[in-house]
Write a structure and sequence with these properties.
Elements (H helix, E strand, L loop, with lengths): L3 E2 L2 H4 L2 H5 L1 H11 L7 E2 L3 H8 L3 H13 L1 E2 L2 E2 L1 E7 L5 E7 L5 E2 L52 H16 L8 H16 L3 H10 L1 H4 L13 H51 L1
Antiparallel strand pairs: 1-7, 2-6, 3-4, 5-6
Length: 275
């Protein structure tokens, strides 16, 4: 899954005025948004995504909600009382943010107060297909993975990215490399060892048939926390089928060699008789 981040977010000065904390919080929210810009992550999820304490993310969220351009908010929140003191927060990321998903669009920033570091909107809005977070080389897909051994979390993630791109034609972006790497190690590599590569292949190839739902239309590394044990029997079945095929092929080749040897012997005998 990915969102589009328009270069106008930077060329307009929006990020410079927003500041690092609000920008990081906005990106964390955007990783959950749908086409309408709506999302409902918990504060714990956002705190983990950003790598801060729950109290700190609450401060960042409030600062982001107060942030406006020409009196227009970038993000708004609706609180819903679900009873028994349970209150949920629903966020709306507005087109002014210069972030969109799927068929969503953006609203051009047109602020003329240079003191607030926002340009007059003369910069052309350029659409890019950049994914949300690409801050390290770990998120860059290495195409030379045909012989990749999935024996550690780093290679497992790279292999997942390659198969994902082959299936969907877009990059899979790792939002939290440490967390997803640990998940690969704990839920895939350690318990299943040499099956890891085959589990990834089947997970992506059969995702739409076995696991897809409206909220998660495409596979993610997080799925291995619960789906790996469902895929293992399929890997075992596939291995057994391949083994039987190899046995049948070997038997056929041995039978053919025996027949050729017999024919060769017969032909040799006939030659002796003729001479």
């Amino acid at each position: 899954m990915y969102v589009r981040v328009y270069t106008s977010m930077f060329t307009s000065g929006l990020v410079a005025k927003m500041g690092a904390n609000r920008f990081t919080t906005l990106m964390a929210l955007a990783s959950y948004m749908d086409e309408k810009g709506e999302c409902y992550p918990t504060q714990i999820q956002l705190a983990e995504a950003v790598g801060v304490h729950k109290n700190t993310i609450n401060k960042y969220i409030n600062e982001l909600l107060e942030f406006e351009i020409d009196g227009k908010p970038v993000v708004t929140r609706t609180k819903v009382n679900r009873g028994q003191g349970n209150i949920s927060s629903y966020y709306k990321i507005h087109p002014l943010s210069q972030i969109a998903k799927f068929n969503g669009s953006i609203e051009a920033v047109n602020h003329k107060n240079d003191d607030e570091a926002i340009t007059n909107g003369s910069d052309q809005v350029v659409t890019t297909e950049c994914d949300v977070i690409r801050s390290t080389n770990n998120n860059q897909l290495n195409n030379n993975t045909s012989d990749l051994k999935v024996t550690n979390s780093n290679n497992a993630i790279k292999y997942f990215q390659r198969v994902y791109k082959e299936k969907y034609g877009i990059d899979y972006v790792v939002s939290n490399y440490g967390r997803e790497g640990k998940l690969m190690k704990d839920k895939l590599i350690t318990p299943y060892g040499d099956m890891a590569k085959e589990i990834i292949d089947i997970a992506i190839d059969l995702y739409e048939e076995m696991f897809m739902n409206p909220r998660y239309p495409r596979p993610s590394i997080a799925m291995f926390s619960w789906a790996a044990n469902q895929i293992v029997p399929l890997v075992e079945e596939d291995r057994k089928a391949k083994e039987l095929f190899q046995q049948a092929k070997q038997a056929e080749e041995e039978a053919e060699e025996a027949m050729l040897a017999k024919l060769s012997k017969l032909n040799g005998g006939n030659d002796d008789g003729i001479n």
